[in-house]
Design a protein that fits this description.
Strand content: 25-35%
CATH architecture of the largest domain: Super Roll
Shape: elongated
Protein name: Major capsid protein E
Distance between the termini: 55 Å
Largest sheet: 6 strands, mixed
Helix content: 25-40%
Structural class: alpha+beta
Order of helices and strands: HHHEEEEHHEEEHEHHHHEEEEEHEEEE
Pfam families: Phage_cap_E (PF03864)
Organism: Enterococcus mundtii
Length: 356
Amino acid sequence: MNLQYFATLNIFDLVQAPNIATYWAERANEQQPYLGEELFPADKQLGMKLSWLKGKTGSPVALRPSGLDADVIPRGREGFEELIQKMIFFKESYYIDEEMRQELNMINQTNNSAYRDVILNRVFDDVADLLRGAAVRREIMRMQLLTTGTITIQENGQDHVIKYDLPENHKGNAAVAWSDVENADPVEDIEKAIFKLKEEGANPARAIMNSKTFRYLRQNAAIKATILGNNANAQAAKLSKQALLDYISEELNLEIVIYDKVYTDSNGTNKFIPDNTFVLLPAQTLGKTWFGTTPEESDLMSNSNIADVSIVDTGVAITTMKKPDPVNVETKVSMISLPSFEQANAVYILETIPEG
């Protein structure tokens, strides 16, 4: 983005939604995408009401025979369940404070391009933090859904608990904690979960966990004995990551995804995939990350006299509003979003600790 273009502009010309959207698009291309963006690709609809069909995963049903001149018999949608939820509204704003405003005013009086670029980058990056926050919020929802079957948001006076009706028999616990590397049998635990899914016609192809859980597998005595041999030297050796991945691929037909990204909220730093959680899922996408139409997009986008609005990341609204006293600009980031979970019946959540 050519920041020098803004050198002679005032604060209102500078901090506008289209300029911020351009800056964000360039920065977003430099960032590694979240796992949830692949599993729940983005889509958009009007309004806040979200409905989807949770598909059955059973074996295919044979086509019924018919006479040549007989009327066709329509097949119903047995096994499908329609789920309806209201998407959640999120918004937060950022003001240019008095000190920053004075620095912006000084830009017009200096020929120091390096100083100018530093100030302008700071202005736009502050707003980009709100957009990063929106992206984090979407990933929190997707990963909560994937690892618990429920989205829980209890912040800022809002209380949302959204249950996605994951089948109860698609949640289970290890017989022995995987952290007990001498006695646990993770392969048996995983095979039981795979068998449960396959009994119902699902075909697990991937598994997600974090590095701490994966480390238990690398240290597990039974797995090491299988791969390296059952002797003292083998047990003392360190099992390589690739050797374990190859073994799981050959033995269980699973691709392992290790996901260690973290986020920060009012409770501190948290892992998107909690420790002691192992999730089986199919090869295809699991649902979608839906966006609704925000009030800013609906009501303000066509009225630039009140505010400037731009849309990024499929459905996130950037709104800039002029404040005359004190002279200021408020930048608001808002979204209406919620993931759908059409493949809920093809997912199994295995807690790698015993129940209770």
